[in-house]
Amino acid sequence: MALVNHILRRAVSQSVIRNAVTGPSAVAGHASGGYKVWKKLSFFVAIPAVGLCMLNAYLKHQEEHGHPRAEFIPYEHMRIRNKRFPWGEGRRSLFHNPHVNPLPDGYED
Q1: Residue 32: how many CB atoms within 10 A of its CB?
Q2: Buried b / exposed e across 36-61, counting CB within 10 Å, b at 16+?
Q3: 68 contacts: CB under 8 Å, gap ≥ 6
Q4: pLDDT band at 20 (very low <50, low <70, confident <90, very high)
Q5: pLDDT tens-digit series, residues 28-48
Q6: pTM (2 decimals)?
Q7: Where are the beta strands (DSSP E) in the chain?
Q8: Is the four-CA dihedral 16, 17, 18, 24 of positive or negative sign?
Q9: Ramachandran region of residue 75, left (φ > 0), alpha (ψ -120 to 50) or beta?
Q10: pLDDT tens digits for range 70-90
């Protein structure tokens, strides 16, 4: 974290000094050097942050699949089907997952 703070301070201070010496440019572009700050922020902040988010999602996914499936208890009020679903054979919901979602008579496997 200290390294990121150091890099950001250095990049921002260089752009501030450059603007103080030459003055702010009326035309945006590579002449003012602002793209270098955004390039450094993209490589040193955004890409590692996306990588950490992917790692977190993967670890949570692994943690979730480590638990055993809940026992099926045939509660009548939870799986009332008055009419068939308009897709497939009519018993499964649109986002049916056979490992997690039981049918009215129990899990599929």
Answers
A1: 18
A2: eeeeebeeeeeeeeeeeeeeeeeeee
A3: none
A4: low
A5: 555 667 899 999 999 999 999
A6: 0.42
A7: none
A8: positive
A9: beta
A10: 889 988 888 888 899 999 889
